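Provenance

Sequences were taken from public entries as deposited. Structures were produced by running a predictor on each sequence independently, with no templates supplied. The record for Microtubule-associated protein MAP65-1a from Trifolium subterraneum is shown for reference.
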Amino acid sequence: MAVTEAQNPLIGENTCGSLLKKLQEIWDEVGESDEERDKMLLQLEQECLDVYKRKVEHAAKSRAQLLQALSDAKIELSTLLSALGEKSFSGIPDDTSGTIKEQLAAIAPVLEQLWQQKEERIKDFADVQLQIQRICGEITGTSNVNDVPVVDESDLTLKKFEEYQSELQELQKEKSDRLQKVFEFVSTVHDLCAVLGMDFFSTVTEVHPSLNDSTGGQSKSISNDTLARLANTVLTLKEDKKQRLHKLQELASQLIDLWNLMDTPPEERKLFDHVTCNISASVDEVTIPGALALDLIEQAEVEVERLDQLKASRMKEIAFKKQTELEEIFAHAHIEIDPEAAREKIMALIDSGDIEPTELLADMDNQIAKAKEEALSRKDILDKVEKWMSACEEESWLEDYNRDENRYNASRGAHLNLKRAEKARILVNKIPALVDTLVAKTRAWEETHDMSFTYDGVPLLAMLDEYAMLRHEREEEKRRMRDQKKFQEQQSAEPEAPFGSRPSPARPVSANKKVGGPRANGANGTPNRRLSLNAHQNGSRSIAKDGKRDSTRLVAPVNYVAISKEDAASHVSGTEPIPASP
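Predicted structure for Microtubule-associated protein MAP65-1a:
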């Protein structure tokens, strides 16, 4: 029964004491010696120590592993907090509270939460860095969509993330600005291509394919190279536009000159309004599509060439037209020339072929320019000559008016003549000063130009000197008339002589002589205003049979000194002084 219990250790409670007791009982039954028993007990004791030792070592190793895990967890916790920039975090256990497993159990959820937060941060950083990388690639033109940005996991702080976001915002702004520049450049290229008649799509496609609107939703290139090429394209197109406009304006100017030379009708000129409309326009003002197209310029060149050929065949007509213009300038400036000789010379030059038509026209244009310059230098003096001659005409009219005995009759228009007479007297009083000024200006002009100032071929100073001489004669005539009047009054005061014995007062020969003004017909079909005694005497006023003045003849006076109303009335008609005009 005892052996059975010993063989079945599961029956009853097995302890070291009970087992040792059973072992001794077995040894007793078997009859083991004490040496054997001691030997077996020592062996059992050694085996128990080995088991305990292994258990202790395993437990110590397990504890060390747990401590290392705890240390690693704490280091990882510190690293995560540093990477995330968290100075404090709720839920972190106290280092000294609880067993190792309790501390590990307490720190595990914190680590899990921090790891989750770190993954989210890494994702956010990767997203921002990817956007930065793409925009930088678009700016530099080296964008690679397959490149994945490397996130620095040691610095995932919010401060670093904000720095990345700030950099991203600046890059996005720069991208927006660059995109705006691209659109502006593309718009400018479009407008320039429209004006120049060029293909816009092919032009921008050469810069970068993405700039072509037909590419669909492809984003526009904003790289430095694209912007530089766009800017260069705009500069090239603007320079091309400037050169074409200059060329077109030259052609337009040539067309207008040729049209004016050949009297081209307006209907033909309207065909090239699209060319001449920009003759004075600036580069920025030309915005009409096709205004500077090459075919339009070629069309204008062909027309200029055609008109040049036509001009060569009409050279004589054109040259004579310019000669006529030159003669008109000289005629208005009262410069005497020989038009027939000039025309004969032009005919000889054209027929001989010794001079190119363009050279002949250029020479005539030069002559016209010089003639205009000379006419401009004479304008001031000629204006005063006109005033002087107009004043002389009014003086002549005033003299005729004063000689008219019926000037005070209540006839039609008498009050108008009276007002004119008053104005004429005021104007006549200004003649001396006008002549003095004219003489001074004429002499100054002659000193400046080192030549004589002629009026229709007659020196103006000679005309003025002759005018002064005639004025002197006029004064002498007035003096003789006053003496004769006194003599007549004395004779009237004496007693009457016998009938037939009183001599009749003879009218002085010069009483009816009238000194004419400086107007007469001269060369070039213009009034020749040379003062000549014979000319003016031959041009004196003629009196019709009824005693009235011939109204079809213009006679200018030369009586330099203005006479008073009383003298004018008394020495001509012997009547009372002229009353003042109402």
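DSSP finds 18 helices and four strands in the chain.
The beta strands are 454-455, 458-459, 520-521, 527-528.
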